[in-house]
Structure formats: structure tokens, C-alpha cells
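Recall that a protein's primary structure is simply its ordered list of amino acids. Everything else, from secondary elements to tertiary packing, is in principle encoded there. The following example makes that idea concrete.
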Amino acid sequence: MNLNLLIENLTNPALLFFVLGVLAVMVKSDLEIPPGSSKFISLYLLFSIGFKGGQELAHSTFDSQIVWSVLFGLALSSLVPLYTFFILKRKLNVYDSGAIAAAYGSVSAVTFVTAVTFLEVQNIPFSGHMVAVMALMEAPAIIVGVILIRAFVGNEGNEQQSLKHIVMHSITNGSVWLITGSLIIGYVASEQHAQGIKPFTTDLFKGFLAIFLLDMGITSGRKLKDFFQSGWFVTLFAVFIPLINGSITAILSGMFIEDMGNRFILAVLAASASYIAVPAAMKIAVPKANPGLFIPMSLAVTFPFNITFGMPIYLTIIQLF
């Protein structure tokens, strides 16, 4: 791996603010981002990424690259929970295995946002349609996870929720709805109207991202202690499965997709894990799954691993292949 690339990523202000948040918890600082402000910033980031992606998509020519990207993304979000479920079931119960498999098959919008910033620092362009690919990858993993749980335990209690209900809940999840809607609005908006809000969608983006990652660091730091008491298996899974998924995707995507930025985004999405959409869906569909397990795995281990070491590794692999 390119050492300079790793050092550059580790000294990124956004990442350092994440570390600052973790350290704040470790030293028992009273630093805290107000919940209302945190929610606003997360909504802003999703809105900004979606809108800019829509603008990029409006200037893109519809070609086979878009089709392959969508198909590749949907395949990833369906296959990853399928194979990870059987790995997890060797050590965990069916409910937790299905929920964790769904989380790792789905995607993290915040990791996507950080990946976009990483590409901007490296001056590597990516296509606007990747925002749509990310949004489409949310639901399939949730559906596969619930189907696997039902296949092994049958329909009990709240697991009788219909697949239609689960799909609708995934689609109308706030993060998915906002980024998809912003993508469509960005696509139909004229260049003149888009320029009017460009200072808000572009110039302020990195500052808001830094504050948001500070908040993520505080949240992660609070969950680390309880998580590490869960044992070595879940910790190793939360590191090595994303690394495997991202690395394999970085290699295989070269068979169908030419653009380096798009391949990198796909690799990061494959390596990411959902800690917003999946927990919300599993709370309704599979209430017996333990959120104290799969949320810390994705947020406190996989997320920081990806934004520190994962991204430079995936980009290096793409450059080599």
C-alpha cells in the first residue's frame, strides 16, 4: 500500500476530528454535539451529496457503465448477507446473525460521504449515478437478512411482518428517502437554479463533515467498552469481512467498470456496514436481534477501520489491478 496515501488519509482533518471525539470519551470530557444539531448536519450531508450527484447525473451520458454499476451494487447487497449469515451462525444465534449480515450487506451513507471527500482530496472524479447505486443497495440486504432468519426460525410474533412492509420501510427510511429525493431534484434542476445554492451544497460541505465525524467519534467511543466485552469473534468479523468485501470488489469491478472513482466507491460501499437504516428496519422486523451487538460492530469498528486504513487499501488495489 502507498505509505504516503495512508499518511495523507490519517492526517485528514475530518478523520482527526473523529479521533478527537473518541478521545473526548476516553478522557471523560463533557464535549457533546446537541442531538438537534447532529441530526441537522446528517440531513445536510445527505442532501448535499444527493443534490450534487443528481447534477452530475444530469450531465452524464446513459451508458453500459451505469447499468453495470447498478447491477454490481445490487448483486453485492444481495450476496454479502447471504454468505456472512452462515459465517456468523457458527458462533451467534439466528436473529443476531441475520441482523449483522443485513448490516454488512447494506451500506453506510456516512462512509459514502467520507469516501467522496477522500476522492476529492486525491483529485479522482466519480460519476453522479453512484449516489443512486448507494441508495439502491440499502433495501436488498435487509430483505435477504429477514428471509434468512425466517428460513431458520419460521414466522413468530413480529417476524410475521410482510416483506412488502419491510421493503416499504427500507425505501421510506429517512436517509434513503432524502438522498434519493435530493438526487432526483438535482437531476431535474436547471444549471442556473443549482448555482444559486452551490455555496450551501459545496463550500460548507467539508466543515459540516468534520463536525459530524466529531459527533460520530463521541458516539463510537461510548459504545466501544460494551462492544469489546462481546468477544474476539465479532471484533475480527467487523474488521476482516469489510476488508475482504472491499478488496474483492476493488478487483472484480475492473472487469465491468473502467472509471477508477466508481470502482473505489463500489469497494467502499461493499466494505461499509449500515448503522442507521438496518437497525431501524430490524427493530420492526426482528426485535429479538440485539442492537447492542450489530450497531457497535458497524459504527465503532468497521466505520473507523474503513476511513483510516480501508480506503487507502482499496484505492491501492484498484491502482494495481
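The mean pLDDT is 83. Residues 51 and 253 are 26 Å apart (CA to CA).
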